[in-house]
From TrEMBL:
Keywords: Exonuclease, Hydrolase, Ligase, Nuclease. InterPro entries: MBL, RibonucZ/Hydroxyglut_hydro, Xnuc_lig_assoc. Its EC number is 3.1.-.-. This is Ligase-associated DNA damage response exonuclease. The keyword Flavoprotein does not apply. SUPFAM superfamilies: Metallo-hydrolase/oxidoreductase. NCBIfam families: Xnuc_lig_assoc. It comes from the Bacteria. It comes from Caenimonas aquaedulcis. PANTHER family: BLL1145 PROTEIN, CLEAVAGE AND POLYADENYLATION SPECIFICITY FACTOR FAMILY MEMBER. GO terms for molecular function: exonuclease activity; ligase activity; RNA endonuclease activity.
Length: 347
């Protein structure tokens, strides 16, 4: 029986449907799992994505020929039944379910199974073949509860307010920034966001996601507010002259990679907060098991480890070589848009 998804130079291709999933080269028809830069690229002729992804996709990619589909609704394309199901990764993220010729395949894109108030929770989808990421596909990666994480972040911010220092936390502009904002305590002080973050905040709010009030640094009237603010910006901005206006600030980085303390030291951050929009090791295993799939294809991350482990568990495991970048790509991909639309000159 022919595979429903194969690897091509352009990306992951569905032969009977004649379309691609998250292609990295321009193609005629692309199904997009979510709006991160390594999965959603410009230049495709026609895009299909989850309805809740429209705002963030248009914010990041501009004008496009975009068709949207509510979660769970099926369409038939060249005889292939296609539906999109929540991936729990970021706003509008989706798993792509394909059914054709008695087979069901699911391409998950990026996903997480932990709760997140900024996006629809991950939904296990039963299938014969599951295509999974493995960004944090090592047993050392195990996330703590959000309640513990945000208590730690709020305590750090509060201590900095008492010391008269700004609290600058670097994270990726789309997904991570909004999840961070949703969990902090705005009563501690003002919240300032970089110009790359605010347009995505607007897209989230337009989808009904509750976020605290935020402002651009050029909107700040009282300069004393800069000394007690929480500042949310992309990693590239934290290493730029944009930071000068905050003076002697305390810096932190929010990422799953902060699970390894050496990463914080190498980055020169004062603090590292373990916050990821990807599944940890237990989450990956739980998600894969919930699909009931006997064949699993691993796309990016700790691929050899995942393939070997799943094979040892009695599954048919293999890999697709892709150009997806996992949790690291957004820092590089956002470098150009990080010049804030508010002017951005260092004060």
């Amino acid at each position: 029986m022919a595979d429903l998804v194969v690897h091509r130079p352009e990306g992951l291709y569905c032969p009977p449907g004649d379309f691609y999933i998250d292609p990295w080269r321009p193609v005629d028809r692309a199904v997009i799992t979510h709006a991160h830069a390594d999965h959603a690229r410009v230049g495709h002729g026609h895009y299909l994505a989850a309805a809740s992804a429209e705002g963030v996709l248009r914010t990041r990619l501009g004008d496009m020929n975009l068709q949207t589909l509510p979660y769970g609704e099926r369409i038939l394309h060249n005889g292939v039944a296609v539906s999109l199901h929540p991936a729990g990764h970021v706003l509008g993220s989706a798993q792509v379910r394909l059914e054709h010729g008695g087979q069901v395949w699911v391409a998950s894109g990026d996903y997480k199974v932990a709760p997140d108030r900024t996006c629809t929770p991950f939904e296990p989808v039963r299938c014969d073949v599951f295509i999974t990421e493995s960004t944090f596909g090592l047993p050392i990666y195990r996330w703590c509860d959000d309640s513990e994480l945000f208590a730690d972040i709020n305590a750090w911010w509060s201590r900095n307010v008492l010391a008269g220092r700004a609290s600058v936390i670097a994270c990726y502009s789309f997904g991570k920034a909004q999840r961070l904002l949703s969990g902090v305590d705005p009563s501690i002080g003002p919240i300032i966001v970089h110009g790359a973050v605010e347009p995505l905040n607007r897209a989230y709010r337009a989808e009904g996601v509750e976020l605290p009030a935020t402002q651009l640094v050029t909107d700040v009237k009282d300069k004393a507010d800069l000394k007690r603010a929480l500042v949310v910006c992309p990693p590239s901005a934290a290493a730029s002259t944009w930071m000068r206006r905050f003076g002697d600030a305390s810096t932190a980085f929010a990422s799953g990679w902060m699970q390894v303390r050496g990463n914080r030291r190498r980055g020169g951050w004062d603090r590292g907060f373990v916050l990821s929009d990807h599944a940890d090791w237990p989450g990956l295993m739980r998600a894969i098991g919930a699909t009931g799939a006997q064949r699993v294809i691993v796309t990016h991350g700790s691929v050899p480890v995942m393939v070997r482990y799943l094979t040892e568990q009695g599954l048919q495991a293999e890999a697709f070589e892709t150009e997806y970048g996992g949790d690291a790509v957004e820092g590089d991909a956002q470098a150009a848009p990080d010049v804030p639309p508010d002017g951005g000159a260092a004060a």
